[in-house]
Structures are given as C-alpha cells and as structure tokens.
Amino acid sequence: MATNQPRKLEDFGTLTKAEQQVLDELDTGEGTRLGDGKVPPEDAGPKRQLRARFVRWLALGGDDAPRLHEKGLQVRGALITGEGPKHTEHRALDLEGCEIARDLVFFACRFADPLLLRSARLQSLFLDGSVLPGLNAGGLETRGGVYLRGAEVTGEVRLVGARIGGNLECDGAKITNAKKKALNADGLEARGGVYLRGAEVAGEVRLVGARIGGGLDCEGAKITNAGGRALSADGAKVTGVFCLRDDAMIDGVLDLTAAELGDINDDPACWPEKTGDLILDRCRYGAFTGDGVSAVERIDWLALQNPARFGKDFWPQPYEQCAKVFREMGHLADAKDILIEKEKLQRAARRAKLKGPRLWWLAFRDWVLAETVCYGQRPLFALRWLFWLWLLGMVAFYGAWKEDAFKPNNASVLSSPEWVDCSVKAPSYEARKGTPTESQLRCFLARSEAEGFPSFNAGVYAFDVLVPLVEVEQQLHWVPDEDIGFIGRFAKGLFYAEIVAGWLLSLLVVAGFSGIIKSD
Fold this sequence. Notes:
Elements lengths: L16 H8 L7 E2 L15 E3 H9 L12 E4 L2 E3 L22 E4 L2 E2 L3 E2 L4 E2 L2 E2 L4 E2 L2 E2 L4 E2 L3 E2 L4 E2 L3 E2 L4 E2 L3 E2 L4 E11 L4 E2 L3 E2 L4 E7 L4 E2 L3 E2 L4 E11 L4 E8 L4 E7 L4 E7 L11 E2 L4 E2 L9 H8 L14 H12 L3 H20 L5 H17 L8 H21 L3 E3 L2 H4 L2 H9 L3 H4 L7 H6 L12 H9 L7 H4 E3 L4 H30 L6
C-alpha cells in the first residue's frame, strides 16, 4: 500500500473542477457525470481529471470526508490519474487491503495506472466501458459482482483467489496482454457465473482451480493466444453451462484438464481449429445441450486432442466420459460408436510401442475383434460374418453335392456291403468325369438301404456346420469326400474351417455380451 495518503481535504490543496463537482454531488446518490460522460482522452483537462488519492479519500473517508452515499461512489467519464513519475505504484488508485461497504462505480473512466484492489473488500465493482492499463485485484472479496462490460484493459486483469458474491462479467470487453496472462482468475470463487460474451482477449484466460456457481459463458468470445494456452480451466468446477458458440473462437489451447462442467453448450464451428489445441483429460460434464450431438461430430471433437504433444500415449477417459453422457442422454448407438473409436485408438497406441512377433499378433487380434464384434460393443455384428460364411458354405456344399463329392458320415455305413459294392461298380471320379456314368454316391442312394438317410440340403448343412450350438443332424449323416477331386478337397477344407469359425464367432459373441473384451 502506498504511504502518506491524504487524510484531510486541505491536504489536496486546490481541487480540480472535476473533483469539486464529485464532492458536491457525492450525497445525491445519482453519481457524477463529467463532460459528455464518454471515456476522456489521455490529456483531458481539469474538468475531467480526478487524482487517484482524492478518489481513495472519498471511498474510504478521512477526518473530514463527507459521508459516502448508500449507493456508493459513482463517477462517469473521469480521467483518474496520479502525481509523480508515470506508472509508479503510488500514482495508482490504491485500495489494497481496504474495506469499503459500498459499491465502486467507474463508468467510461480512463485510469492512467493499474487499479490496485489486492485483498480489498467491497460491495460491487463496476468498470463498465472504462479504459485501464491493468487491474490487480488478487484476493478481492465482494458481496456483489465484478463488472468490466465493454472495458478496455491493456494489461493483466488479476483476480487470483478472489471471492465474488455475484457474477464476473466481461461481456464485450477487450483485454490485451499478448503472450501473457490476460484474465488471471486462478482459484476464483464466484457464486454467480463468469461471462465473456463477445469479449476479445489477446492473451491467456486462466481459471485454474476456479469454483463457479453459475456458468462459464464464452458466447461470441475471441480468445487468442496462438502457440500457447488460450483458455485454461484445469481443475475448475463450473456448476452451470460451459457455452462456446455464436462465432466464438479459441486460438490456442483450450485446457479443460480435470474440470467439472454442468453441461456443454457448444457449436462445432467454435472448436479449436488445430489438432492438439484441446485437452479433455479427466474432464467431466453432464450433457451436450447445443449442437454436435452425434457420435460423428464428437469423435471429431475428441480427435482435436493430441496426447503426444504433452508426452502421453493416449487419454481413454475423455472417450469414456463422452460415451457415458451419450448413454445418459439416451443416445445408445452413439455411445457405442464413441467406445469403438476409443478402443481402436487405445489399441493402436499400445501397438505403437511394440516390435516383432508380438506386434503382429496384437495387430491380427485387434483386427479380428474390430471386424467381428467391434471390440465387444456390438456382439451381434458377428452375425454378418456368420451370414457370409453360411452363404459361402451353402454354395460350396451345393456344388460339391452336385459333383457327388459327399459320402455318409458313418463308419458302419462306409464299411457296409452296400457302399463297398457301389465302390466296385462305380468308376473313379477321374474316370467318369464328363460322362453320365453313375457315381458311388448315386449308386448307394438308389438302394433301399439308403432310404433311412435324411435328404441333403446345402443351406441346412452349411448352417449345421457353422453354428455349433444348434444340431439339425445334417452333419451327422453327410461329410465332404476329399477323394472326389478338387471340389471335394475344397469342400472338406471349408467344412473344417467353418466349424472353427463358428466356434470362434460364437465365443466372441458371448465374450462381447459379458464385457470380457476390452483394452487392458
């Protein structure tokens, strides 16, 4: 705090015309309008000038200071400056550690030096439309809100550890502190919301560890800190809605690490443009209430993260959280799509660290799980593979049957006199190929002993071979004959392949429904 602050009116010597006007109108409760009420130029004369120490004396009261009106100190269109060398602390309006039971209202005022309100206590602070080179209000406590609507600040707005009983409103404000902290509100506690609607901020907006009772509204805001963090809300807790829409722009990293948000109301057009400029690790939220409520859009949103930029392989939690929200919103199919994408990326990240045979094995296994049951998220997806295998089997087995490349699947029948007798009478496949000569199979089927055998049906046979949990007795009676040329050998190989595939797909379906299939 500056020293040797004036305590009496006589300490100020001759008052400027602006100071005399404020003094005369102090008890009206209407506030004082200086000049045209607009922001004065930097070289404004005595009709607009208020010395910072004089303003402090009015706000705090002195030995003979007039009583401050219940509505607080209200000034519009003033140039608040100091004495002595420019931009030194004792020139500033210094209210550090002060306790003021009224509002401080400075509409459309120009401050020659940063406003100092460290650890101060007051009712509310209004700086709407004002121009100032900075605000140092770390540890500030207000019963009401802090308002910088339409203000222009060429320096840091510092509200670290501030406790605000209402809103922090910076709607339409222009805060410029490029490549540095522009709005620094780490550890802020606000019972209301934080509003940056239509604000233009060049520099970082920091809300690390903030506790915000309302929403965080960046509707139409332009926050620019290219190459660095634009909006940092690590560990912040926002009870209301995080709003990012209506042509809002985040040029830089949007860091929501471990943040807790009530809902997200955003527009895909307002997401950070560069991959790696979004961090959602451990971020939690309740719902999507704006646009982009589909898996396709949210996968693009999640893909804006780049864990490698921060030395990490993959962040699974953002995908799990997004899927959880979709489930709770009733978008079950979208939730599954999100988890499928998460599994694909997580498994790819794991394979990226491997080499050699294990890499190829994991790549094959992951491919099988992806193409059959979608990593367990869609177990019934395996039915399409069963269908195509069934169709292949039906065609192949039908062709083999037409070529008489089947035989009874019964050892006693194969050793019976009837079958042996037919093998003697019928020529080999090579000998009868292209001729109407009867085959061993046709010879056997023509005998009365074969009347007890069920008729062959290629579709039913393929189903019986492929589905291990259903028995329709076709497989019990017939088996491809590998001795009957290429078609027999192909049918026999397909026979065994479909048995293996059927068991594998069935087990994958069961594992998918039971939740066994998942990333380690």
